[in-house]
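Deliverable D2.4 — example input (structure tokens):
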């Protein structure tokens, strides 16, 4: 690819993204992160309970 095409592709991509799309993508990413965090925290608490016979917290 020539350098001029790279610049044109980047500019076209930025213009194609709408604000609603960006907000939707951010919400989706945040939701996925929250689910993973809860799963990891819950798993860690379950392991702690198995090892110490007490629920952490």
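Example output (designed residues):
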């Amino acid at each position: 690819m020539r350098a001029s095409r790279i610049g044109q592709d980047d500019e076209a991509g930025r213009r194609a993204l709408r604000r609603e799309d960006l907000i939707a993508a951010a919400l989706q990413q945040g939701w996925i992160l929250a689910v993973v965090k809860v799963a990891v925290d819950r798993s860690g608490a379950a392991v702690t309970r198995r090892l110490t016979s007490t629920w952490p917290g």
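The radius of gyration is 22 Å.
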